[in-house]
Amino acid sequence: MLIDSHCHIDDNRFDADREAMLQRARDAGIGHFVTIGCDLETSRAAVTLAQRYPYISATVGVHPHEVKHIQDGWYDELRKLAQSNGVVAYGEIGLDYHYDHSPREVQRTRFREQVCLARELRLPIIIHTREAQEDTIAILKEEKAGEVGGIFHCFSGDAWLAKDALDLGFYLSFSGVITFQNATMLRDIVKTVPLDRTLVETDSPYLTPVPHRGKRNEPAYVRHVAEKIAELHTLSVQEIEDATTQNTKRLFQIRADPAAAQPRRAQVHFAVAAPQSRLHGPSAPPGRPSRRHPPVSSHVGHHS
Length: 304
Description:
Blueprint: E1 2-7, H1 18-27, E2 30-35, H2 40-52, E3 56-60, H3 74-82, E4 87-96, H4 104-121, E5 125-130, H5 133-142, E6 150-152, H6 159-167, E7 171-174, H7 184-192, E8 198-200, H8 222-233, H9 237-252
Parallel strand pairs: 1-2, 2-3, 3-4, 4-5, 5-6, 6-7, 7-8
């Protein structure tokens, strides 16, 4: 069994065949899916999916592209959504200096706020970082993100970012990018990352792996990522399946029966409720244990 640790099942590109797409993935041996919130609306949609399907978990959070839209009441509602059944992490959050869809100062401020909210909720963090490695690591250290740990999703950074992320207790999740012809440096990094810190994802419907380039990505294709990692480590695909599945279950505390196949309701409605009027709300319930991975040594080299 494989777990797709990062996908966007609510995306409208799946509207025409969502049920068939999920069944294709399950037929391909994908036993669980983590669907990601990127703003308030998609966080609600992710929670709705997790409440319908026993084999889907959800995250909530605001992507760096969208943080310029955060309004009073958003954090209140995200805090409440995070306490819903099936929510396993906070994100995806971080910094993106490539597109700069939100001003960089706004990105940094909102990133700090959301790391603090994840720590309050005792949820691991899903990190998006692009061309912002130094600021990302600095903020994670300053805001004590290592207390909850998390994932650098769709990892495509260099060796120093890999080492810094591992030193913070984070996992690295690899996507179809590692199958791309020009991803030689990234494949070299994959070889150095300990298997007990490695996850697999599709980021579907984006980043379709070889041999399906040019088509819409979907969770079934996470198997191609696992196969490439197996090749790079000179291991069997089964060994990669076992390692990455256990890692994902450990981090997200997923205990769902992989054989569970029936949705809980007949239809999903992605309703969008009005945001609340306050920025702050009640704190998270006590008792959620830390999901931080204990520090391990890494073979990834130091940055210069």
